[in-house]
What we know:
Strand content: 25-35%
CATH superfamily: Dihydrofolate Reductase, subunit A
Strand order of the largest sheet: 5-4-3-6-1-7-10-9
Amino acid sequence: MKESYSQGYVFMAASLDGFVAREDNSLDWLMKYGVDENDNSFEEFTENIDALVMGSGTYKTVIGFDQWPYKMHTYVMSRTLTQDDVPGELQNKVTIKNLDPNELMKFLYENDLKKIYVDGGKLVQSFISKGLVSEITLTQIPILIGKGKRLFGELEKDIDLELITSKPMKFGFIQNHYRIVNS
């Protein structure tokens, strides 16, 4: 990873067969489990995060939630959305950027935003392939959904991971935290 770029961190859930959403972006398979009141791993993860970057598909899904779930500022990467597409109540929380991953991470670094939460299947794939992700926290959900949007796509080369921690969770979830060794 280049020194003049922010570092990306991934925190996602995936079905055991590797999907992060159904083909229509639905998360019904994940939401059916409810909340683990003893799990604060997301809060711990976001404590030291400076900003969130997501793709437009993830943004369109999250904007449909009852309330905006993120405390940190969110940058949405999109070639088609503009700042006018962001609802008024989110104008100070969401910024639309039409930059490629390297340009965006350089922009964030130059604005003193160093630790970036990267969210969204295709976006995560793009950032990983460009060497812009340093750690991945992946919660495996014990369900096979058969088809949908994959977390990891095709790669040009192997990417070695080092396991930092692994913990069993409620509902049979397993959360693994990895450091990317090479990219």
